[in-house]
Automatic annotation (TrEMBL):
Signal peptide: none annotated. NCBIfam families: CD3324_fam. InterPro entries: c-mor_Regulatory_Protein, Homeodomain-like_sf, YraL-like. This is Mor transcription activator domain-containing protein. It comes from Emergencia timonensis.
């Protein structure tokens, strides 16, 4: 989040209107919904997790237990079960 002076970012008329409600305070103006990005859109984290989850499913189908998968991938057993359940639904 960046910070800009309102006198440089807003027209004088709009600034005067805002001062009717807020004066001398810092306010946050959120992005428009159309400008928001989904989680993981800026990085490759989404792809990395998808590949990891696919590997977890493959290991499970090869005979590894949930406990073994938990130890191998450093996840709690509930997370492994959730991943397996989600992949089964898809």
């Amino acid at each position: 989040m960046s910070c800009r002076k309102s006198i440089h970012a807003l027209p004088a008329e709009l600034l005067e209107q805002i001062q009717e409600y807020v004066e001398g305070e810092v306010i946050y103006i959120p992005k428009k919904k159309s400008s928001k990005k989904c989680w993981g859109e800026n990085t490759d984290t989404r792809g990395i997790l998808a590949a990891r989850n696919a590997q977890i499913c493959q290991d499970f189908q090869s005979g590894m237990s949930v406990k073994q998968l938990s130890d191998k991938y450093f996840l709690v057993e509930k997370s492994i079960q959730r991943i397996l359940r989600k992949r089964k639904i898809e």
